[in-house]
Amino acid sequence: MLKGIRVIDFTNYIPGPFTTLRLAELGAEVIKVESPEGDPARQNGNGLVFKAHNRGKKSIVLDLKQEEGKGVALDLIRQADVLVESFRPGVMEKLGLGYEAVSDIHPALIYCSITGYGNKGKMSQLGSHDLNYMSVSGALAQMKDMSGRPVHPSHTFADYIGGLAASERILGGLVARGISGKGSYHCVSLAESMASLMTNHVLIEKETGYPNGVQVLNGTVISYGLYETKDHGYLTLAALEPKFWLNFCKALGREDWVSAHYSKPGSGNPVYRELVDLFKSKTREAWSEFGQAVDCCLTPVLEAGELAEYPAFKEKDFITGEGHVNMYSDHRGAVTPPPEKGEQTKEVLRDWLHETVE
Fold it and tell me: Pairing state of beta strands 29-34 and 57-61?
């Protein structure tokens, strides 16, 4: 879909590389510009953080603090369709690579800055990480244990949601350029990207005072919740609509449960007690097979290492044998392995700038 689109990527760690990975999967040519030290993600988790997000890209090393490196960067930018950067606001301007400077030499460029809190305002210069963006967005307050304490996620949601938002804005910019012929600037805030997921919660709290979004989705009914299995695994039952709950009850021969569809969980509810005992009578695998045979919104809670064998992903080879997760099941643009630092420097200078490097 993006064959022929050239992306120059000045990003590190997760949000920016995830953005450009998604573009590479759609067929874009992505040139990753690294400092002489390389993307710090090359050292995170024995380099696995880098490997997870940079397949299908080409790496070139430039020292942007030197005039020679800056000059090469400008030459590459002239040949690019998209520029993505994730420095703190003002850094690219100091390097002479800010949007105003490069749009003068390349008016059709789509330029995307990935930031924590935007490029203007009181907090724009503050450093933060995923946990900070989760907390200020209101999303972290939706993940609490039984005592009301926020749970520390083992997933960096803001990094990935921000990457999705950035790729969306870039694609929107490319579509608009196809219509007008003009480039555009886009500033994506990770905090804002996470806060954008709070649409239900903010409006419901304002209108009703309830702070946790759609109440029926919060473990307040027996037909929509988490249950433990015989082997101490877990299931998600989400039979919210009557047809799914009816299918579930019929398949179990418990049509006497149908009227309890929206009843509350708790020891005072006899149907809930029976449901808890029933789920604990079989293994997670047995219930997983049941959920695939009966249309009742019943699925297992999978661990990371189990995804590759789950039918929804296995049938489409969504998880590769090397442990890479594809971005789309029907587009496989990023097929080459993650590059070594500067691996394609000569190739890029030759193909993009027609220069010969000894």
Answer: parallel
Torsion, Cα of 225, 230, 232, 237 (10° steps): -20
Q: Is the pLDDT of residue 333 over 90?
A: no
- The token duo for 273 is 């007690």
Q: Which residue has the tokens 């994506």?
A: 188
DSSP-assigned beta bridge partners for residue 29: 6
Q: What angle in degrees, to the nearest 10, is found between the helix axes of 130-137 and 157-180?
A: 80
Share of the chain above pLDDT 90, in %: 96
Query: How far apart, in Å, are the Cα atoms of 185 and each of 85, 166, 176, 280, 325?
Result: 12, 11, 12, 54, 30
pLDDT for residue 358: 60
- The amino acid that residue 120 corresponds to is K
Q: What is the 3-state secondary structure (H, E, C) of the chain?
A: CCCCCEEEEECCCCHHHHHHHHHHHCCCEEEEEECCCCCHHHHHHHHHHHHHHCCCEEEEECCCCCHHHHHHHHHHHHHCCEEEECCCCCHHHHCCCCHHHHHHHCCCCEEEEEECCCCCCCCCCCCCCHHHHHHHHCCHHHCECCCCCECCCCCCHHHHHHHHHHHHHHHHHHHHHHHHCCCEEEEEEHHHHHHHHHHHHHHHHHHHCCCCCCHHHCCCECCEEEEECCCCCEEEEECCCHHHHHHHHHHHCCHHHHHHCCCCCCCCCHHHHHHHHHHCCCCHHHHHHHHHHCCCCEEECCCHHHHHHCHHHHCCCCECCCCCECCCCCCCCCCCCCCCCCCCHHHHHHHHHCCCCC
Look up 159 and say whether it is catalytic.
Answer: yes
The catalytic residue among 130, 145, 159, 330 is 159
Using a cut of 0.85, tell me whether the model's pTM lies above it.
yes
Structure tokens of 216?
């029926």
In 3D space, the residue among 245, 352, 318 whose CA is nearest the CA of residue 8 turns out to be 352
